[in-house]
Inverse folding.
């Protein structure tokens, strides 16, 4: 278990970590919680969208796609 109470999601070799993505003005998920979640997943990366609230996938489509694709193209840690 990690500090957040979850098992590591990257226990298997070559398994890609997650990339939590939130908006800076998100009223549902705080940046503090997202940072804590990210810290519990080896190889993960927190992406914060500055001009966005809870749904970057809908609010900042191009930026979301670029950041997500960039993350997925990196080798697994």
């Amino acid at each position: 278990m990690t500090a957040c109470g979850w098992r590591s999601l990257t226990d298997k070799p070559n398994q890609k970590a997650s990339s939590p993505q939130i908006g800076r003005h998100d009223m549902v998920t705080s940046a503090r919680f997202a940072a804590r979640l990210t810290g519990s997943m080896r190889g993960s990366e927190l992406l914060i969208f500055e001009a966005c609230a809870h749904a970057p996938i809908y609010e900042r489509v191009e930026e979301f796609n670029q950041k997500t694709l960039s993350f997925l193209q990196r080798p697994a840690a």
Observations:
- The chain has three helices and two strands.
- The first helix runs from residue 31 to 39.
- The first strand starts at residue 21 and ends at 23.
- Helices lie at 31-39, 56-59, 61-73.
